[in-house]
Amino acid sequence: MEIEGYEINDLFNSEDLESVGRKIDFERLLTTLSERDRKIAVLYAFGHTQAEIGAIVGLSQRHIGRVLEKMSKRLE
Asked: pLDDT digits over 9-33, tens only?
C-alpha cells in the first residue's frame, strides 16, 4: 500500500510474523481514517515530527498531537 509516495511495506519486516501483524493492524487503521488523517499517520510512521507534519498538512503542531492521540486510543 502506498500513500503520498510512502510505501507502507517499507515500515515492516515481511519475514517477522509479529511485524506482519502490526502491518495488518496499521493498514486496517488507515482504512478507517479520513484522507488527511491517513496522511498524518503515514508521515508520523515514517519519522516526521509533529511540527513537520503540521507544516505539510497546514495544521498546528498541537492539532497534529490531538489527531495522533485519537489514533493511538483507537489502537488500544
From this structure: 888 888 888 888 888 988 988 999 9
